[in-house]
Specification:
By secondary structure, the protein is of the alpha+beta class. It contains three helices and five strands; from the N terminus they run E-H-E-E-E-E-H-H. It has a five-stranded antiparallel β-sheet, with helices on one face. Pfam families: FAR1.
Length: about 160
């Protein structure tokens, strides 16, 4: 394979560690997503376990978006433009478990090593877990659409507004 790649330029205070605590599972997701952005990889939520009685999340695993392998495709084999394989079996992950006494989520497992190259800082905004539109930008997009601007024009306006 390509060898092992470990993010080395991420500040220690932004790096998760075993035993780290979070108030909520979504806060843990946000922290790991930010770590992924700084390190150069995209993340996804792999699984969640919930209490059957209360519906409270008891454990959750966040993984590198390149974790695992794609399942067998049951659709038509004669696809004109098949999507490229993006998964390569990467085992980088963060697992959190609810501590029932403190009601906080504790990191029970953290693996930082990746078996693929990491993204450059200039391209991290294009990774799936980083493509978020906040409420302000969503309103601006709607206003541009309602005023009759074409998509390309509204994108240019957005870039001028945010980067100048």
């Amino acid at each position: 394979m390509m060898g092992i790649h470990v993010p080395s330029h991420v500040p220690m205070e932004s790096t998760p560690f075993k035993g780290m605590e979070f108030e909520a599972d979504e806060i843990a997701y946000g922290f790991y997503n930010e770590y992924g952005r700084n390190a150069g990889f995209s993340i996804r939520k792999e699984y969640v376990n919930k209490c059957k009685k209360t519906g409270v999340v008891t454990s959750r695993r966040f993984v590198c978006a390149k974790e695992g392998v794609r399942g067998k495709d049951k659709r038509d084999q004669n696809v004109k433009n098949p999507r490229a394989e993006t998964r390569c079996g990467c085992e980088a992950r963060l697992v959190i478990v609810l501590n029932r006494d403190s009601k906080k989520y504790v990191v029970s497992e953290f693996i930082a090593e990746h078996n693929h190259y990491l993204h450059l800082p200039s391209t991290v905004h294009m990774m799936p877990s980083q493509r978020k539109v906040d409420a302000t930008h969503a309103i601006e997009i709607d206003l541009a659409h309602e005023s009759g601007l074409r998509l390309k024009q509204s994108q240019e306006l957005f870039l001028l507004h945010n980067y100048c």
